[in-house]
Amino acid sequence: MTQARFELTVGPVLFNWPAARLADFYARIADEAPVDRVVIGESVCSKREPFHADVTEAAIGRLERAGKKVVLASLTLVTLERERRAARAMVAPPGDEAGSREVDIDDLTLLGFVPPGGRFSIGPMVNVYGEATLGFLARHGARRICLPPELPFASVAILGRAAAEQGVGLELFAYGRMPLAISGRCYHARVHGLSKDSCQFVCEQDPDGLPVRTSDGTDFLAVNGVQTLSYKFANLVGDLDRLAGVGVTSLRLSPHTGDFIAVTHAFAAAAAGALSAQEALRRVREAQPQAEFTDGFLFGGYGAAPLSVA
Amino acid sequence: MTLELVCPAGTPAALRAAIDAGAHAVYCGFNDETNARNFPGLNFSRAEMADAIGYAHRHDAKVLVAINTFPRAGDFALWTRAVDDAAGMQADAVILADLGLLDHAARAHPSLRLHVSVQAAAANADAIGFYARSFGVRRVVLPRVLTVQEIAAINRDIAIETEVFIFGGLCVMAEGRCSLSSYACGNSPNMNGACSPASQVEYREEDGDLVSRLGGFAIHRVKAGAPAPYPTLCKGSFEAGAYRGHVFEDPVSLDAASLIPQLAAAGVTALKIEGRQRSRAYTQAVVRNFRRALDAHAAGRPIAAGELRALTEGQQTTAGAYSKTWR
Question: Closest-CA residue in chain B for A221?
Fold first, then answer.
């Protein structure tokens, strides 16, 4: 096998999956997925956390025994008192034992808690658009930065050089529905005629998000509680040659239902240069036949543009 | 203590009108992509900005320069130049969102007053504390995701000023953390300073309906002949499962005038009116009414709600996230 050009990161499960599905998912990631890192934990809605805390704890052990690097996901929008306490506890655990796990910071709230010399990664909902911000985060201990999905390729290329100079890993959101917005309001609750505080966890009904169509029936977006996602799935598996050339070092694959393990295998083979772009795309399509794919933010001028590769 | 009234100005004429109508401070931007209201025909050249700051200072008002988009990779100098120029013109503050730009401003202009833009979405005391410690910012514009109670709690926990939106357009997403517009059409507030820009909008008659589209996506559909709403993406009418309607937000604007006493009690320093894209006449009327309301509140008199309501006649309004049921 040739040297892989990218590390692979499994992003946090963005959706409200039942505990049994989560347990099964992480067992298979541990045993079968050729990935380097797994970001695990709730990043969208703190109300969901109690339901899968035990499963997450067990999954972390299993993933680490399988040789995966485990990184803890953090909330994308921190407002409540208990969310602030949880965020603080995550970055600087009590006792601060050596080897405490790295945190994926997705809201700048957590940046203020990082102890001197602390290291962390940055998630896709932190605004890193330019090299000055990348440099600022690198000086404060960022070891890997997953860029916001909306950046065009020209920006990625410039940030790739800056990341290499700063010794920071540069990650792209490479697979799955892209997080586009976060709100104080829960849209799942709203479309079910409920409020956020009495939501009845209706988001559980949509394990890949609830599609939002325009009035003429065009699939457009997907809602996931307080988060809004693209309807189309990002899929950069056909773009890896271009990305390797500009300093992208890792790819974030965002969990979905369907044959996600097959998706990780297709990306791993393509990352190693062992598959053509066409063959890699074919395998990802086969693993997720319902999805429409895009690499529009990078290469199409807008996020919903058709794939730039056949 | 009188609340500070912070008013929008898209043009030098609107700035003078706002100040004449009683604005304590006016916020505005340079005519390029460094500000989050980068619309054709709006905003200030360097010479206009210098004149505007002079006019404001002669009338005992402040000018806050919004440089609140996220600098594009490779073009950082366009943004640092805006900060440097605003400092050189004796702007009373700059309103910034980007970490790299805040870092530059704090190092290069230690005496320049820095405000954290709403586009930074600093939504709790810890995030605000981080900006205060890292860059010495003096004020934060709070994102529109917080209740009045949460705002009061934040003010108890922080040592800097807070500014909140009181009137005008309403983002339903955490500001600065939304790329819906660029998903649909390629332009976003963060990158280009424009959400749902007019250049990407078209109105078409389809089967007896008038459909307004953004980047080709149907956002609104009304019977032909009815007034067509502007297709701001998050106020559009969509389908989600069995639901048909405004999935994200109704086509409403924010009117929290009735909450002025509660916001004052919550420790807020300044109230902000949205609308740099609005006409001079509109700005003047809104500013005059709000200034009267704030003076009445400061003097312990009740606020005459009728006057403020007239400003939104015919429009739906909401108190937004300030009331908990909005969520």
Answer: B180
User: CB-CB: which of A132, A151, A304 is closest to B184?
Assistant: A304
Domain segments of chain B as ranges: 4-170+252-326, 180-245
**In the block, residue with structure tokens 């099964």:** A24
Contact by Cβ (8 Å): B135, B113: no
pLDDT tens digits, residue range A25-47? 999 999 999 999 999 999 999 99
Percentage of chain B beyond pLDDT 70 is 96
More confident of the two residues A123 and B320: A123
Domain A7-178+232-299: CATH architecture, name and number where available = Alpha-Beta Barrel (3.20)
Cross-chain Cβ contact B217/A220 below 8 Å:
yes
pLDDT of amino acid A98: 44
| Structure token digits, residue A36 | 């380097």
Which residues, in sequence order, are bridge partners of residue B238?
Answer: B245
- Mutation target for A interface from B68, B171, B179: give the one with most A CBs within 10 A: B179
Closest partner residue to B238 (CB to CB) among A88, A192, A213 is A213
Q: What is the distance between the alpha carbons of residues B233 and B219, in angstroms, rounded to a whole number? A: 6
- Report the C-alpha gap between B251 and A43 in whole angstroms: 29
Q: What confidence tens digit (pLDDT) does each residue in A76-126 have?
A: 999 889 999 999 988 865 555 545 789 999 999 999 999 888 889 999 999
Which residues from A are below 8 Å from B237, CB to CB?
215
Q: Residues B19-33: pLDDT tens digits? A: 999 999 999 999 999
Q: CB A180 to CB B219 under 8 A?
A: no
Could you give the ipTM of this predicted complex?
0.96
| pLDDT at residue B306 tops 70 | no
Interface test with B, best of A128, A145, A220, A299 (most B CBs within 10 A): A220
Q: Which of A78, A79, A29, A89 has its CA nearest to residue A53?
A: A89
The answer for residues whose C-beta is within 8 angstroms of residue B249's C-beta and 6 or more apart is A185, B170, B172, B234, B235
Do B191 and A184 lie within an 8 Å CB cutoff? no
Q: Answer whether A303's CB lies under 8 Å from B183's CB.
A: yes
The predicted-structure confidence for B42-67, as pLDDT tens digits, reads as follows 999 999 999 999 999 999 999 999 99
Any idea which architecture B4-170+252-326 has in CATH? Alpha-Beta Barrel (3.20)
Residues 123-162 of B with CB under 8 A from A: 123-127, 129-130, 133, 144-146, 150, 153
What residue ranges do the domains of chain A occupy?
7-178+232-299
